[in-house]
Amino acid sequence: MSFTLAIVGRPNVGKSTLFNRLVGKKLALVDDQPGVTRDLREGEARLADLRFTAIDTAGLEDATDDSLEGRMRRLTERAVDMADVCLFMIDARQGVTPIDMMFAEILRKRSAHVILAANKGEGSAADAGVIEAYSLGLGEPVRLSAEHGEGLNDLYTHLMPLADEFAKRASDISPDTDVDLDEDDWDESEVRKPTSSRPLQIAVVGRPNAGKSTLINKILGEDRLLTGPEAGITRDAISLQIDWHGTPTRIFDTAGMRKKAKVQGKLEKLSVSDGLRAVKFAEVVVVLLDAAIPFEQQDLRIADLAEREGRAVVVAVNKWDIEDEKQQKLRDLKESFERLLPQLRGAPLITVSAKTGRGLDRLHDAIMRAYDVWNRRVTTANLNRWLTGMLEQHPPPAPQGKRIKLRYMTQAKTRPPGFVVMCSHPDKIPESYSRYLVNGLRVDFDMPGTPIRLFMRGQN
Ligand code: GDP
Ligand code: GDP
């Protein structure tokens, strides 16, 4: 069972760019079908393991006359009526415009399932617009760069629970039951809270032979994947859904792609891009190290990547069963971790044996805790009380004798936690001061190991 996604929004925000990315080359014009004009394009889209029909509402670019607004409204309404889910796109570089507000109003009235996307989200020029998007009242925006293919992971995590729900509904309905699949069937809160029916998504990444397949097998409790002493024995990258200690969990396994890479003699390079794929679709990334050769260049790269992608990270050191000097080794590991991955300060480091299963309970707990921290929300009142203390303890610098004022702060997002600080001269705040605040947030609000984003925003 698949579903239909309409991409709507004013001209030039990047709808077609996203459509083309999702659909690739296999697109069809909808106007083959009776009653539909050539303003709508339709194509079979894919996003990771999701398959659905995408509708693009481009085709208004030429309409520069004053009937534009009316046409846009009619076109959007038609697309919305054809679709199960609407992806409403704004241009994060421009922020929210009056036409965007008009769209938001149509969508609030007409569509039960709206995903808000702030496109052109690459780079800091989009920060303010992404935050402004919250004001549309359609929940947390997905920060996208259709052009660069960024943020598709977040789009996926918003779409997946809906896709699952549609699939479930389809299988619940037998052909001879008369069921009205109307908007009224839907609980609106689902769209706003995409976490409700979604399994926890984890990826196990690491160097070839670190023991990824062995670990996943052990978690699965059955020999569903192939393992072996040789790199690249498993089949292609896949995701598996399991019930791990009562938590519905989807595990991305990347081992398979190595096989191809090995054949082509590009093992190192492809292992990284392979890991990248998994990282993009995960909420929690387990970086699996081999205790005999921990923190190799490749491990550091993938851990850093996970941080930059804003994933919660758990470091697991495998093959602990063959270590002799466990105490000393653990001290060394912790020291290396702090020195080599300061950006992941406080992330859990768990020793495991994928082979014997030792430590897997602790790994599970660490993953759940990391996920929890990643979702943490701090109240505005607490944040501002905290900010006052931080400013007193260590005031911001005063370039050319003028002190930078940090006035107010709020948490703009979770997954990972992101905070906005309203201040004078945001561009003059040194990196070291931002780091001071981030480290303070981490310690004082108990958010170890999760990437923390801090946005400085000017206020006149
Ligand atoms: P549509 O009218 O909404 O379908 O918009 P298009 O897909 O035609 O895109 C409009 C313009 O924005 C084009 O020049 C795209 O190359 C550009 N664009 C689309 N997505 C992005 C993005 O993520 N970042 C940036 N910087 N430009 C984008
Ligand atoms: P992958 O390439 O990361 O998927 O690694 P595999 O799961 O294929 O494991 C590579 C090799 O390490 C195999 O020979 C495994 O039997 C071995 N191995 C994996 N985990 C452990 C462990 O916890 N202890 C020991 N002693 N060997 C392990």
From TrEMBL:
GO terms for biological process: ribosome biogenesis. Pfam families: KH_dom-like, MMR_HSR1. InterPro entries: G_ENGA, GTP-bd, GTPase_Der, KH_dom-like, KH_dom-like_a/b, P-loop_NTPase, Small_GTP-bd. One of its GO terms (molecular function) is GTP binding. It comes from the Bacteria. GTP 2 binds at residues 206-213, 253-257, 318-321. Residues 175-188 have a biased composition (Acidic residues). Keywords: GTP-binding, Nucleotide-binding, Repeat, Ribosome biogenesis. GTP 1 binds at residues 9-16, 56-60, 119-122. Residues 173-193 are annotated as: Disordered. Residues 3-167, 200-375 form the EngA-type G domain. GTPase that plays an essential role in the late steps of ribosome biogenesis. PANTHER family: GTPASE DER. Belongs to the TRAFAC class TrmE-Era-EngA-EngB-Septin-like GTPase superfamily. EngA (Der) GTPase family. Associates with the 50S ribosomal subunit. This is GTPase Der. It comes from Shimia gijangensis.
